[in-house]
Amino acid sequence: MIKPSxxxxxxxxxxxxxxxxxxxxxxxxxxxxxxxxxxxxxxPVVPEVTVVEVQPHPWQHAIEAYGRIVAAEKVVIGVxxxxxxxxxxxxxxxxxxxxxxxxxxxxxxxRLRLDRATAxxxxxxxxxxxxxxxxxxxRALIGRQVVSEEDFKQTEAAHNAALARLEQxxxxxxxxxxxxxxxxLISPVDxxxxxxxxxxxxxxxxxxxxxxxxxxDSLQVVSYVTEQEVNLLHPGDVAPMQTPGxxxxxxxxxxxxxxxxxxxxTGNFPVKLRVDxxxxxxxxxxxxxxxxxxxEGEQVLAIPRSAVVDRDRxxxxxxxxxxxxxxxxxxxxMAMGDWVPxxxxxxxxxxxxxxxxxxxxxxxxxxxxxxx
Length: 372
Description:
This protein is an alpha+beta fold. Helices cover 28% and strands 35% of the residues. Helix 2 (108-143) packs antiparallel against helix 3. The protein starts with 9 loop residues before the first helix and ends with a strand.
């Protein structure tokens, strides 16, 4: 008997159905795995960030200031007596030394007056010698009652008068000598001639300003500081000073005075410092950079320098709150070493990020790792 061959057998259909189900299941699993990988790949990277707590630190404020060098003292040169200038030995801009001859006035009359005074002193000395000899002789005779009391008193009076005339002659000679010296002008200080206002043949009088000399052994630096900085400084504090006029050289400046009133135009307070110029290289008008150091030991909120980053031309830090970065633009002072003082914008206990800053933005998630 022949069996029909058109329909599938029950066992073969079940096998093919199982294969089909396995194939569909495999495809579904691959799609789920791919979708999972895509989700993981698209998920944002959460950086691990080191944070430091803002705390007060002992602090010495550093203040970088700029100023200008000026003469600490200016001496006006003038005459004590009226006269005519016969010689001028200096010029504007010249360096001069203490004791150096600056100018000479015509001194012919004063020399004649001194010669006469000297002659009067010689005459008075001779008269006194004669009067003293007579007085001593009479004083010896009066004891032996050889001369009268009246004659003795006359010789005594003549002696005293001769002594007074000598004293007057000596005073006149001293005055003539002083007048002659006053016709020679000597520099009282080391300095540089700022103004020359005299020439030979010129008639001058007391009170005329013939020259102005800037002292050069020491100069002043005039600078300005803000109202937040002025009370951090003290007279006598030492500050390093540099100037482009003398490259590579550092000078020591010392605070002489601190202004009690602010400049009405800027609101800043003047600070004057004295700087030694024994090498003679500093000149009035040169610019100066001064590194002032404020008072020590004050407790100031500070953050590590590494916490500060520049964004949009601002110094910003990222405060960590609820595992997210919060961008803050605090007011910061000048750094000292690895620390930066906080003037405002942060509080004690705030936690700031100190690394991974390029990866952070306002509101970005992070994993905080605390550092002591």
